[in-house]
Amino acid sequence: QVQLVESGGGLVQAGGSLRLSCIVSTSIFSIATMGWYRQAPGKQRELVARINHSGSTNYAVSVRGRFTISRDNAKNTLYLQMNGLKPEDTAVYYCNMEIYSDSWGQGTQVTVSS
Known about the structure:
Blueprint: E1 3-7, E2 10-13, E3 18-25, E4 34-39, E5 46-51, E6 57-59, E7 67-72, E8 77-82, E9 91-97, E10 108-113
């Protein structure tokens, strides 16, 4: 199994930025496909961005051009740089390792005020 610890969330005004981090306790981080997900109140969890072992990325249409996913394999850490935040980005954000898709951390709350 794997442990994931997210951090970096907070309260920000619309148009602001946040950088989320996720430390992953596993020996196979460098070869794993990782993703950031979010869940807003009353809504299903949705994929925000994904990055594979070679650095190829995919983004949800709603965040494309504003969010950037990246990874530091030496630190077993996944990042999500979020710029141009909108109130509709308000959610709890989670990271996930695709090979252990049932394992989730506690998440980090992002709240964007208008």
